[in-house]
């Protein structure tokens, strides 16, 4: 009877390599809350309220890994963008997002949105893979 040492050793080698790769290259999956603001009735009033009132309220949300704010300026063909602004709030896990957005600070930010978002708002959660 012959022992297939090469097959056995290849399986062990593959297993060791996979374990090493997963410890060396950590695939980090974060989550983000994306808030897309439609075009407001009065952009100047939106900007004033957003910067002077809403952002200070939202800045109290704990557990954020990163925050990005975007004001859309156009489309590649020079047209009007479909959305006015976007806010992206990054969290380490979905559980952290849920905890912080359910907190008094998170709820204060959510409840403030109707005070200035006259163009409507879409809120989504996404996984960020890097």
From TrEMBL:
InterPro entries the record matches: Dimeric_a/b-barrel, EthD_dom
Domain of life: Bacteria
GO molecular function, a single term: oxidoreductase activity
Domain EthD: 40-118
Signal sequence, renumbered to the chain: none
UniProt name for this protein: EthD domain-containing protein
